Amino acid sequence: MTLLELLLPVLYFALIIAITALSARLASIAVGRLMSRSAPQVAAGARRFAAILVALVGSVLAIQELGINSAILLLVVAFFGVAVLIALREQLENFGAKYFTDIYSPYKVGDSIRIREHSGKVIEINATSTVLITPDDQLVSIPNSVFMREVVVNTSPQAWQELTIPLSIGSGVDLPTFESDLMRSLGKLRLRLDRRYPPVLTIKSRTVLSTELTLTIMLRRPEEREPLATEVAKRVSEAIQRAQGPRPRTPTPKPSPAAAEAGSAPSKAPH
Amino acid sequence: MAPPPTRRNSAAPTRAALPTEPISLCINTQTPLLQFLMPPQKRELMPPMEGNTDLVGLVEGVDYRYSPGGVTRMVFPLVRRLLESGVLGETDWISLNPTAPPMVRFHGVTLHSMALEPSRMANYARVKESIWGAVHGLDSEDPDEAMFWSPDFSDYGYYNRITAERMRQLDAQHDFDLFYIHDFQQLPVGEMLDTLKPKLFRWHIPFDEGQIPRPWKEQLSRYLNSYDVVVVSTSGYLKELQAFGHTGEARRIYPYVDPSDFSRPSPEAAEAICRRHGLSAEQPFVLVVGRMDPMKGQDRAIRAFASVAGDYPELQLVLVGNGSFSSAGKGLGLSKSSQWRAELEAQVRLLGLESRVLFTGHVGQSDLDGLYERCEMTLLPSVREGFGLVVVEGWLHHKPVLVTRRAGVAELIKDGRNGMVFDPEQPDGLATKMRKLLESASLRRRLGTAGATTARQCSIEAAALAEARLFAEVLES
Lengths: 271, 477
Hints:
- The complex is a heterodimer.
- Mean pLDDT of chain A is 80; it is low at 247-271.
- In chain A, a hairpin with a 3-residue loop joins strand 2 (118-125) and strand 3.
- By secondary structure, chain A is of the alpha+beta class.
- Chain A contains seven helices and eight strands, in the order H-H-H-H-E-E-E-E-H-E-E-H-E-E-H.
- Helix content of chain A is 48%, strand content 18%.
- In chain A, helix 6 (175-187) runs antiparallel to helix 7 (225-244).
- Chain B is built from 15 helices and 16 strands.
- In chain B, helix 2 (70-84) packs across helix 15 (460-476) and helix 8 (267-276) packs across helix 11.
């Protein structure tokens, strides 16, 4: 066996990995554009999913070039996945519910809500449950999955007016510039919004890679909730793209557009 | 089960214990403590300002000067006092100062300067002027919500956001114990600063519930409630804040001066100072100290003076003051002060009082002491005044004061006992009271002596104690 024959599979492997990395990035961008009118968190998740899928397929193809039987590898991964799903079924259900309630929930921390026989003020929404404090100072922890199945009534004043949109900006985005630009853009929608309450951007958390934010706007008419959510999402997406410039500096989860289409889940009270 | 904490909005300083360990503090004021005068080239050649480099080698009046107004006369002396007494440890101070080096160490305090692009600066300035005008009742029309949706407001938000971000960055380095935000211009910082640490806000301007435009109430209320404690300057404002619907904690701490900053020059020295400003020996005068701003009401003083001037041919009216950081051309680029001075000079010409009214412009502290010492009375004719520390300064020189009812300090005055108060809505009120004071030397002496006692409530000692107790209370509660 010549040296070339030895090296050739390695070269193919490296080439496929490089092409895979590029394809994953392109797929992420393409999905982001396709979902530019979806809720920012949903779009970010879809982009990540597309990138991971392409990366997985590319990795399997690359591994085959090294002479490893990818069928066995895939089987191991599949069994592992099924085992995880069975073992952590309940937790995953709550995690999933958390993901969706973050985006579509008709309540947030600080709101007063009623669900089943419980009512109180939301003091925490963690990965698995939502914690209420009742009027008689009792703590009630409700699994997030319950919120996906049950009717939730938000009894906070002006709850119907409030539209909260979670979004995330990468570390390459300058927050003050993004916020200022977004506020200017949202100012164009002022006739559709309660003019006493200009939009508010609140920081939820920060990491080295990204900043998680919540945009809160106050509607004037409840029936305009959905079109406004879509329009605001589009403007958020555009503001993020402007703030990032022509080329994003880091491949951080890039919040694209979109909005919380509260009310889209029929079991939920308007947000 | 522990009882819920009770809300205490006390007019009197609390009796909490003083802090046991030095507090690490981050202060934010819009107005910077120092304005740098040297050309940009020299600024660039300055030694590295990072770390503990003091402003060694720079000369006050040549390379830099103190900003006129409350930051220099109140905030900085308080910080120094609290540093000296060990209440404060690491202290960082963030201000808007586009022409300053980014970071300077000055008397134990690290001054951080924020810059703003000229286009944003102009928009920011317009919003803050709108708020200022509305709160002081200067707007003829009731403002609506349009301001919140204007491009100007997004730049106002931008400035406050970059300030909050800078404070957060510094907090990551220094782990501050608390944040103290001063000035209404910086009100949104409390909401923007994502920290669980205590945030205090000092509202320096008048707070009159009825004066806040109705469409702004929700927004201002949200900003105010983002602070752990809001500090106002008078008991009257505290009541107004509660009437406004503020649900958070609030305190009253009187504004203050450091009496050691004021000296009482000898009669000879005071005469020399007055001569330097064109006042002859023994020439009586009424003193008005305040920046050139329509809100300061110098036009009212001129009108009242005109009606008594005929009966007192020797009497002069002396107007001391220039623009503030915000209103002078070197600050935020507005020329409100020079416009107002031109209007006042035209008014003086129209009344034929050119030889009787003196505009001194800005004067240094020693000259101001001489003018206070020699005047017959100190007059505060403001349209609206958050407090009116010049009244306290007059008291420190044992001078009678004649004060508009629309000034915060008026709540300390018992008319005819430690000063006189006039109703600015009554056109002859000021002239009548001015005449009454001019007629009686014994009354002037009596009011001046009583006023000197009242001034103790506005001393830096009293304020430093109140602020230290407030810090301790906030940190312990």
